[in-house]
Design a protein that fits this description.
Length: 310
């Protein structure tokens, strides 16, 4: 099977434009269409519904796409192994968001110490926007970051690994006996760092609830905190009501030091691993280790707190 045909199928499925795929593959729209037709003939399956305006995957296309993606990933790994035949030693630079620090990073470092004792891990903690720039500049080798709505780097591999729900968390003395939503919205609201995806999402849900209660956005007091450790400390001291990943305070919640409120949470955010397509096998190996550590962490915590993405 011609892997170039498979690559064309994958790109068309994600981009949805024959013209754009042709431009990216330095080909012509006619050649792109021909490759798909030949692949369909080899597979004895129709992959796309074609018309003059849209390009939609058929049921067979949807079913076969994950296998095509894995084939392309294996092909890229084969090419990297041929290019870098000797296992690397030295340093790998990993950029992470702070949520990783407070979830599965300790276990990841333990596993790395066991499996890759000769590799030095250099960590940096930044916002996702900064991490993506650093990856493009090759200032870091691997990212574990928020998967945002922006288009992913076409020269990088990005794979979602976990979904993190957001909860309303409060010290018991802040919880009103009645009119829960309105009274909670009148208090100091605490959330993650300003400029982050979770911050924007928390502000949106708070403003939505305020509108439903007849409150103006200007009546809300929402503070972004400089770190998750600060956010947890403020919530535990009863300084304000936190809109945050509940997994970070799972133990205080289980000890009833804090309480989860029955309020609509903002949309969960996803964590993803990213690294350049031409990265060395060492980096892809570390990415796979991080994915497996994250999977074990998620299964141990439970889906109410964090869900692994297969």
């Amino acid at each position: 099977m011609n892997t170039r045909f498979v690559e064309t199928f994958v790109l068309l499925a994600h981009i949805g434009s024959v013209r754009q795929v042709a431009k990216r593959m330095h080909s012509t729209p006619g050649a792109i269409s021909m490759r798909v037709k030949k692949l369909e003939a080899q597979l004895n399956a129709v992959l796309f519904n074609w018309d003059h305006k849209t390009l939609q995957l058929t049921s067979d296309g949807l079913r076969l796409l994950p296998y095509a993606e894995r084939l392309m990933e294996s092909t890229q790994q084969l090419e990297r192994m041929a290019k870098f035949p000797v296992k690397e030693k030295g340093k790998i630079r990993i950029g992470i968001i702070e949520t990783v620090v407070h979830t599965f990073l300790p276990e990841l470092m333990k596993v790395m110490n066991r499996m890759m004792a000769d590799v030095t891990i250099d960590l940096s903690v930044e916002l996702t926007t900064d991490l993506k720039i650093q990856l493009m500049r090759r200032d870091v080798d691997l990212l574990i970051r928020v998967k945002d709505d922006e288009s992913d780097n076409p020269f990088a591999i990005t794979r979602a690994i976990a979904e993190v729900p957001i909860h309303w968390i409060a010290h018991h003395r802040l919880i009103p006996p009645h009119d829960l939503v309105r009274n909670i919205l009148s208090k100091q609201l605490l959330t993650q760092m300003r400029g982050s995806v979770p911050y924007e999402s928390a502000v949106a849900i708070a403003q939505q609830l305020a509108a439903e209660q007849g409150l103006l956005p200007s009546e809300l007091r929402i503070s972004g905190t400089p770190s998750l450790a600060t956010l947890v400390a403020l919530a535990r001291e009863g300084v304000g009501v936190a809109i945050m990943p509940g997994v970070l305070v799972k133990e205080p919640l289980e000890r009833h030091e804090l309480q989860e409120l029955a309020l609509p949470g903002s949309l969960p955010f996803q964590m993803a691993i990213s690294y350049m397509k031409n990265a060395s096998p060492l980096i892809s190996d570390v990415a796979e280790i991080a994915r497996k550590v994250c999977r074990n962490y998620c299964r141990h915590q439970g889906e109410h707190w964090i869900r692994f993405i297969e």
